[in-house]
Amino acid sequence: MIETRLRPQLSEHQVAYFKRESVLRYSGEIGAEMAEPWNPIVQSRQRAQRFAADYVVDQNSPLASPNQFHTVQAAVNQAVLDVGRGIKCSRIYIDIAPGDYEGLLYVPRLQAQGADIGISIRGTHSDPSMTRLHANIDAQMRAEEYRRCFAAQFADAPANVLA
After folding, report:
1. Which region, left, alpha or beta, applies to residue 112 given φ > 0 means left and ψ of -120 to 50 means alpha?
2. Beta carbons within 10 angstroms of residue 20's beta carbon
3. For the chain, what percent of residues have pLDDT higher than 70?
4. Sign of the C-alpha dihedral, residues 108, 89, 87, 70?
């Protein structure tokens, strides 16, 4: 006979403390918290809609502008170069058209004037499953196989990507 136990149940009053709005309501150091409501899902969607792409990746389109690429790594490489040249100094947005993108992706730490610069990589299709980034690699891959499989895609990469 299998014993079944009921999990503890929260009262309606207790449930209110575990809703996203309640859990993410405060920020600050312990003991000095302050009310600062935050909803990461709504805010990230709002931010993503407000900011235009700095770079666009679409493996099937002609490269009509200097900010269009066929691979995500090529767009990251350009972002790295632009930060190094002082062209980009704030968060970078890379939009990716739907498709299957094969290959490694390496995003180095980026800094300008001592501040970190983030990179947001966003799929442009409303269905996230329509954009897929993947590489066939495992922990047992030997160095020579790694080079054979991936060296070509990093041939033109900036030094901090290669490192």
Report:
1. beta
2. 13
3. 88
4. positive
Residue 136: helix, strand or coil by DSSP? coil
Contacts of 81 (CB under 8 A, 6+ apart): 158
Length of the chain equals 163
Amino acid (one-letter) located at 132:
R
Tokens of 23: 């859990």
At 26 the pLDDT is: 74
Strands in 22-162 per DSSP E: 26-27, 34-35, 55-57, 68-69, 92-96, 99-102, 111-112, 115-116, 119-123, 131-134
Quote the DSSP letter at residue 87: S
Give the model confidence (pLDDT) of 29-44 as tens digits. 788 887 776 666 655 5
pLDDT in tens, 58-108: 999 988 888 999 999 999 999 999 999 988 888 899 999 999 999 889 999
CB pairs under 8 A, 24+ apart, for 82-88? 83/110, 83/111, 83/112, 83/117, 84/158, 86/112, 88/54, 88/112, 88/117
The residues, ordered by sequence, that sit 6+ positions from 156 with a Cβ below 8 Å of its Cβ are 77
